[in-house]
């Protein structure tokens, strides 16, 4: 396996771990997880959840605490927000859900070096 392939596998594992931690965090807050890693042609939504009567489309970003490339929250740029909005429209259409109360959250998961513990920052209604 090449170094690039190993790095990609490491990023995928880190991302999957962060998404699991984010889902557990939302469950502790009383959310109900509806979907994880929902995909269509326009993209992927990491978590779809219900917060009471509100449908939540959550983007999860995981980083090590090195901070070399900014925070996980900062990494959700204009292009990514546009893609998430478009993918959410497809989700609503395919599930024949009325356009009611929904929002877009961003969850940043910070991994602590040498530990499986994570610090979670949650920005509800981020965009």
Could you give a short description of this structure?
This is UPF0102 protein DQG23_00015. With 127 residues, the protein is an alpha+beta fold.
Give structural notes:
- The chain is α+β, with helices and mostly antiparallel strands and 127 residues long.
- The chain has a five-stranded mixed sheet with strand order 1-2-3-4-5, with helices on both faces.
- The mean pLDDT is 89.
- A hairpin with a 2-residue loop joins strand 1 and strand 2 (43-51).
- The protein has one domain (3-123): Trna Endonuclease, Chain: A, domain 1, CATH 3.40.1350.
- It is built from two helices and five strands, in the order αβββαββ.
- It has helices at residues 3-28, 78-94; strands at residues 32-40, 43-51, 54-64, 102-111, 118-123.
- This is UPF0102 protein DQG23_00015.
- One of its GO terms (molecular function) is nucleic acid binding.
- InterPro entries: Restrct_endonuc-II-like, tRNA_endonuc-like_dom_sf, UPF0102_YraN-like.
List the main descriptive attributes of the protein structure presented here.
single chain, 127 residues, alpha+beta, Trna Endonuclease, Chain: A, domain 1, 5-stranded mixed β-sheet, 2 helices, UPF0102 protein DQG23_00015, UPF0102_YraN-like
Strand content: 35-45%
What strand line-up does the widest sheet have?
A: 1-2-3-4-5
CATH architecture: 3-Layer(aba) Sandwich
User: What is the H-and-E element order?
Assistant: HEEEHEE
How far is it from the N-terminal to the C-terminal residue, by CA?
39 Å
Total of domains: 1
Structural class: alpha+beta
**Average pLDDT number:** 89
- Which fold name fills CATH's third level, the topology? Trna Endonuclease, Chain: A, domain 1
Compute the number of helices: 2
Shape: globular
Helicity, as a percent range:
25-40%
Q: What is the CA-atom radius of gyration, in angstroms?
A: 15 Å
How many strands? 5
Low-confidence stretches: none
CATH level 1 class label? Alpha Beta
């Amino acid at each position: 396996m090449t170094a690039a392939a190993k790095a990609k596998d490491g990023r995928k594992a880190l991302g999957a771990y962060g998404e699991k931690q984010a889902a557990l965090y939302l469950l502790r807050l009383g959310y109900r997880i509806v979907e994880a890693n929902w995909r269509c042609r326009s993209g992927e939504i990491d978590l779809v959840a219900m917060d009471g009567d509100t449908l939540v489309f959550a983007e999860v970003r995981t980083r090590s605490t090195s901070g070399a490339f900014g925070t996980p929250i900062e990494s959700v740029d204009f292009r990514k927000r546009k893609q998430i909005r478009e993918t959410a429209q497809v989700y609503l259409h395919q599930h024949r859900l009325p356009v009611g109360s929904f929002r877009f959250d961003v969850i940043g998961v910070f991994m602590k070096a040498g530990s499986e513990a994570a610090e979670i920052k949650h920005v509800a209604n981020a965009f």
